[in-house]
């Protein structure tokens, strides 16, 4: 369980760093951009893979994919 929490924390930290580098007065969802780029990165190799790792601010793209899989598999609960 601690391993999943470590992976989740790493992806959250990467998302925060990624969001800091998006510029301007845009309205956007950093987590959405980070998640889709993480998904796209799974097919990358060599220099492109290294560029995704740098841009997404995560040390391991496979770990990021597994973390997002865990995040997306949890149902959204209403607060009512």
Question: Could you write a compact summary of the structure shown?
Answer:
It comes from Aromia moschata. The protein is mostly helical and 80 residues long. It is 68% helix and 0% strand.
Q: Which structural class do you get from the secondary structure elements?
A: mainly alpha
Mean pLDDT: 82
**Distance, first to last CA:** 29 Å
Query: How do the SSEs run, as a string of H and E?
Result: HHHH
Rg (C-alpha, Å): 13 Å
Descriptive terms for the model:
mainly alpha, 4 helices, 80 residues, single chain
Question: How would you explain this protein's 3D organization?
Answer:
There is one protein chain. The chain is mainly α and 80 residues long. The chain is 68% helix and 0% strand. The chain has four helices and no strands. α2 (30-41) runs antiparallel to α3 and α2 (30-41) crosses α4 (61-72). The chain is globular and about 40 Å long. The N and C termini lie far apart (29 Å). The relative contact order is 0.18. The mean pLDDT is 82. This is Serpin domain-containing protein. Keywords: Protease inhibitor, Serine protease inhibitor. One of its GO terms (molecular function) is serine-type endopeptidase inhibitor activity. It comes from Aromia moschata.
Topology of this structure?
Layout: H1 2-20, H2 30-41, H3 46-56, H4 61-72
Helix pairs in contact: 1-4, 2-3, 2-4
